[in-house]
Every structure is written in structure tokens, then in C-alpha cells.
Design brief:
Layout lengths: L4 H8 L3 H11 L3 E2 L3 E2 L2 H11 L9 H11 L8 H8 L3 H14 L2 E4 L2 E4 L6 H8 L14
Antiparallel strand pairs: 1-2, 3-4
Helix pairs in contact: 1-2, 2-3, 4-5, 4-6, 5-6
């Protein structure tokens, strides 16, 4: 069964505009009075855009926390975070600064780590497990 841009956007945790823009760029989906996407089209969009779970924090911050939660040794800089998350360096830097200020990230042994002892960690953990960066790890603005 084909899906609308709104349905695909909801499943990927993004906006309709990003879905349609990526579809045009990739040449997927079909336009018949409105956009429709097959399962294969949706998989191509998932690989291009990644999956963001939504949640109480902005998308870029959720992506940074999700990546850091998978790295027990942490990452050494905001630029390393940007590459790992598929975010633009400025976006990743802003997310890291905000997460540091809110206590979601700590600096230990010269590296950035997700603070799993943060009081809201248990609330965020299930959402962070759903986050997937783009397969291409391309740069995107958030």
C-alpha cells in the first residue's frame, strides 16, 4: 500500500517538506495529483534522511545524544560528533553546547559522553534507540 508524504514524515520523525524535497532529489515516489510512496521509496528516503524519534529535545540534540549513547569512549569534539551524526558542524556544535548546559553531556577524559545518570535519561532512552542517522552520513542542516 502506498503512503502519503505525511505518513512517511511521521514514521521518519521529520517534516513533509523534507520528505518531498528528498523524493525530488532521489527521483523516488510518484506524483498523481499528490505524492505517493511505495515501500521501496520509503526505504530510500529512510536511508537518505535517517530516522528521528522526536521527543522533548530538538531533533539535532536527540541525534547527538543517540550517537553518544552508543559510544562508551565518547567523541573528542563537536566536529567528530557532526561527522558521526550526519549533521552540519554548526548544528552539531550548537546541540553539544545546549546538551552540555542542560547536563545531558559530560566531558570525561577529554571526550564528550552522554550522561546516563541524568534524571531524565530513563525518559529519553527508549526514544534514543529509535534514532538512526542517514546512511550516507551526509551533511544536513537541522
Amino acid at each position: 500500500m502506498d503512503a502519503t508524504p505525511e505518513q512517511v514524515a511521521r514514521r521518519l520523525g521529520t517534516s513533509r517538506r523534507r520528505v518531498v524535497s528528498a523524493a525530488r532529489r532521489l527521483g523516488v515516489g510518484r506524483f498523481d495529483g499528490g505524492w505517493l510512496f511505495s515501500l521501496e521509496d520509503e526505504q530510500a528516503l529512510r536511508a537518505e534522511l535517517g530516522v528521528d524519534a522526536g521527543g522533548p529535545l530538538p531533533r539535532s540534540q536527540m541525534r547527538v545524544l543517540a550517537e553518544l549513547s552508543l559510544r562508551p569512549r565518547g567523541l573528542v569534539s563537536a566536529r567528530a560528533v557532526a561527522e558521526a551524526c550526519g549533521l552540519a558542524p554548526a548544528t552539531a556544535s550548537a546541540a553539544v553546547k545546549a546538551l552540555l548546559a542542560d547536563g545531558f553531556i559530560v566531558v570525561r577524559d577529554g571526550a564528550l559522553h552522554a550522561d546516563v545518570l541524568h534524571p531524565r535519561w530513563l525518559e529519553l532512552r527508549p526514544l534514543l534507540r529509535e534514532v538512526r542517522p542517514p546512511d550516507s552520513r551526509g551533511i544536513e542542516a537541522a
